[in-house]
Every structure is written in C-alpha cells, then in structure tokens.
Amino acid sequence: MKAVILAGGHGTRFWPVSRQSHPKQFLKILGSRTMLQETVDRVRSLLSSQDIYIVCSDQYVEEVRSQLPELETKQIIVEPLVRSTASCIGLAATYLKRYYPDEVMAVLPSDHLIGQVDEFIQVLEAAQELANQNWLVTFGMQPSHPATGYGYLLQGEAIGKFGGYSAYQVAQFTEKPDLEQAAQFLLKGNYYWNSGMFVWKIKSILEEINSCMPKLGQSLKEMDESWGNNERMLELFASLENISIDFGVMEKAKKVAFFPCDLGWNDMGSWKALEEISSQNSQGMSSNIPYVNIDGRDCFVHAAQEKVIALVGVENLLIIDTPDALLVCDRERAEDVKKVVDRLKDKKLKEYL
Predict the structure, then answer these.
(1) Average pLDDT, the chain
(2) Where are the strands (E) in the chain, listed by range?
(3) pTM for this structure?
(4) What total number of domains does the chain contain?
C-alpha cells in the first residue's frame, strides 16, 4: 500500500490562525507535532517512509521538506494549481501508476484527528483487502450528534468481513444536511459521517475517473505525457472542474464500500470542531490561555499566550485572537468563517489572508 496525504488546502475555516502562507496542516494545533507530521506518524507502523507521498502546491513544497526531511523529492507530488480533491487525487494516482500500476493507495487528509490509532491501522489493512477486490473503499464514522458540517453515508447491503471488520455498500451520499435532516439521520441509526479518507487500487480509481469524469480522465492522460512541462501541466490543470472526488466519482461509481468505524475521529474542519474536543468547565467555557469570565457561557477562546481575555455576559461565541486579526463568531456559524476569507479577497486585503 502507498499512502497519499493531501496537504494543499488553505484551511480557510481556521482563519485567522490558518493563513495561505502557513495553513493549518503545517501548524501545531493539538500538540508538539504539526497536523501533517501527526498524519504521517499515524501510518508509520504500517508503511515505511518510502511508501508515503504528499500532494501539495508548489507554494508548500519547502514547508513539506522542512517538516518531513525523511521524504525524497520524488515523494512530493506538486499540484500546478489548487483544485478540489477529484483533480488532486487523479493527479496523484496518475503519478503513482507509473511506478506501482497494481498497488493499492490510501488517500488521507493531512488535517484530521484520529484518537484510536491502533484500530485505524487495523481497519486500513481491512480496507486494503477489500480494495484488492476492486472496490472503492471509504470509512463511515459513527455519528455522536447531528452535525451539519459533515457529509453522510447511508449503509447498504453487507459485503462481508475483512480483517474482522464488516464492510457494506454505500447506498447513498448526502452532503452536509441541515440540522433537521441530520437529526433524522442520527435517529435512523444507519447513517455515518463521511470521513473523506479512501482506499482503492490505483488502476480502479483511474478507471472510475475515466468513466464518471471523462474530461478529467483525458486531461490526466495528457498530464501523464507532460511531466516536466510545467506550462502545459498548468494549462491542463487550469481547465479542470473544481469538484470533489465524492461528487465527481464516489456518488456515481457502482462498487463503493465503507467500513463503519469509531476511531475518535474529527475532521478538524472548523474552530467548532476544535472546541468539541477541548475540555470545558461547568459554564461550557474553554480556552488555551488564562481568562476572566463574568457571567459568560458556552464560549471558546484561542489567543496568543501573552494576552489575557475578559468576557462579560456573552454566550455562544468563538473568540480567536492573533497579533493582526480578531475573529468573534457565533459558535453555530463556525462553517461561515471561510466567508470572511472570501470577503477579505474581495476587499483586496491580501495581507490578512
């Protein structure tokens, strides 16, 4: 198995800490290691360093080299432009096909939290076994609450057991439902959060891309003939539709399977996600710094260590402070932080991106 770790995103929902020059996957959000380093650390018991590949834009190549000096240059796959996961994964599969045409690849985002690493490795091995039967495999996380920031998988017919884990067909994908629909999914008990992690044979995903996204498939074939021609690669990539692998392939493919899991998983997609795993006091308050609270409730504070923050009579807020930017946001609208980044772009305030 080869692991492809996606490290090209800008982490806009983690603004203002995550910036284009240094997005969240390169930050120490949870401990002494960056999120990218922790992602690589998780798979080291299963794979050697030579089996790990990173996909990122040219802007982040030096940062990847700095954080993962054990990787060789050929293990960093450079996206000509930032696109969504269909193009990114297709590019990585096309690259790996040159060297490992019959190999299985695992696709792992670089900014997820997984608390139960041993079990994650075991289910990854089970997924490899199923992928060798030409299934496109993903992982469904047991939902703990009606989250509206995740996509959902509907459990279909049973496929069998692999490595002690039961696999099922994916009957339906639902992308980010509203609160009422998410609550219904939770009650039904056969819906799972879509983890955004995948395992498949390299040739299987490329065949499905050719079938479900023929324009992308044709462009990938031309890219395969254009390695080293940066101008042509940029031209080809710029013409691609900006669409996720879920929409472009997984919702259309026939042999899509998943393993229900409970791995202590969090996609760390927003400040709300970080708040959910942070310890809270009896007033629902959590903070990474000393703070003063007078009659405040259910707030999350993240700020520079040398600063104290005082809250008086406020509720349900995310307060994120950096030296040059302050975010004050309703906790339930954490997903909308990316709109701040869009507005800053519109106002040409590039120094804050």
Answers:
(1) 93
(2) 2-6, 52-57, 76-79, 104-109, 113-114, 136-141, 152-162, 165-174, 191-201, 256-261, 265-266, 286-287, 291-294, 300-302, 309-312, 317-322, 325-330
(3) 0.92
(4) 2
